[in-house]
Specification:
Blueprint: H1 5-28, E1 36-37, E2 40-41, H2 42-67
Helix pairs in contact: 1-2
Pfam family, one: DUF485
Transmembrane segments: 44-62
InterPro entries: DUF485
């Protein structure tokens, strides 16, 4: 995969939309985050999923920039 500046823009928008969605959910429907799944609070699980998303985006960006040929 060739890494283009447009890819960086897409990654930035993905992170921004994930953050806005997370905080929008907290503000608009906090009742959805009540309760637990397998003994873990839903809010903590959502935060961990976002952390994993950010980690994956970071790795994707690093790997793509490492493959970029030197100009």
């Amino acid at each position: 995969m060739k890494f283009r500046p447009a890819s960086t823009t897409v990654l930035a928008w993905l992170v921004l939309l994930a953050c806005l969605g997370y905080f929008g959910l907290i503000a608009a429907a906090p009742a959805l985050l009540q309760g637990d799944i397998g003994g873990w609070p839903r809010a903590i699980l959502l935060a961990l999923l976002l952390f994993l998303l950010f980690f994956a985006v970071t790795l994707w960006h690093i790997r793509a920039s490492d493959r970029k040929p030197d100009a």
